[in-house]
TrEMBL record:
Superkingdom of origin organism: Bacteria
PANTHER family according to UniProt: FMN REDUCTASE (NADPH)
Listed name of the protein: FMN reductase
Pfam family, one: FMN_red
Length: 195
């Protein structure tokens, strides 16, 4: 299970929230007898220096392709101007077509107000499905102040109860299909274990 954080602030509350969601999802998959391990974490701000440099395009693409090897990918962004961050969009603009075709993506957005809760499904979800990802249930929207105090954990667990059946079903279907993104294309392979 991998994480992509699209916050322009390094090691931000969005980063903390994404890691917390990853850990809760990992535990839920283990409980559902779908072994999962916490894997790679990419903080988009670390790639910002090469993001708009043509010489750095390969570095960005390599990072994205390594994320596409995960079965589950948590993609997190702050809610800025009622949508995901420009940094996340700029990063994902480097994604080859079908990059997330073998991935179950979990969209997560953190906003200053609960009024922006719909942004995760109106904006981030379509971006992920455009890249080929399967997205289980509804996206997860959290409030900044709840992340700061730890009160967001209850919201994550409420959200999780509605998502786990879809998540497990999508993972099982992907496993049966045996699809994986490799070197710019989706190929069928036997996949030995959840990542």
């Amino acid at each position: 299970m991998a994480v992509l954080v699209g916050d322009p602030r390094p090691r931000s509350r969005v980063h903390r929230a994404a890691l917390g969601v990853r850990d809760v999802l990992t535990a839920a998959l283990v409980a559902a007898e779908r072994p999962a391990v916490a894997g790679q974490v990419v903080d988009a701000v670390d790639l910002a220096p090469v993001l708009f440099d043509p010489a750095g395009a390969r570095v960005v693409t390599d990072e994205l392709e390594s994320l596409a090897l995960a079965d589950v990918l948590v993609i997190a962004s702050p809610t800025l101007r009622a949508t995901y961050s420009g940094l996340l969009k700029a990063l994902l603009d480097h994604a080859p077509p079908g990059l997330l075709a073998s991935v179950v993506a979990v969209p997560l957005m953190v906003a200053a107000s609960p009024r922006h809760a719909m942004a995760v499904d109106l904006h981030l979800r379509p971006l992920l499905t455009e890249l080929g990802a399967s997205v289980p249930g509804r996206g997860l929207a959290l409030v900044e102040s709840d992340v700061d105090t730890g009160a967001h954990r209850a919201a994550v667990h409420r959200w999780l109860t509605g998502v786990v059946p879809d998540l497990v079903g999508l993972l099982d279907a992907r496993r049966r299909l045996g699809e994986r993104y490799e070197a710019g294309r989706t190929v069928r392979t036997a996949r030995p274990a959840y990542e």
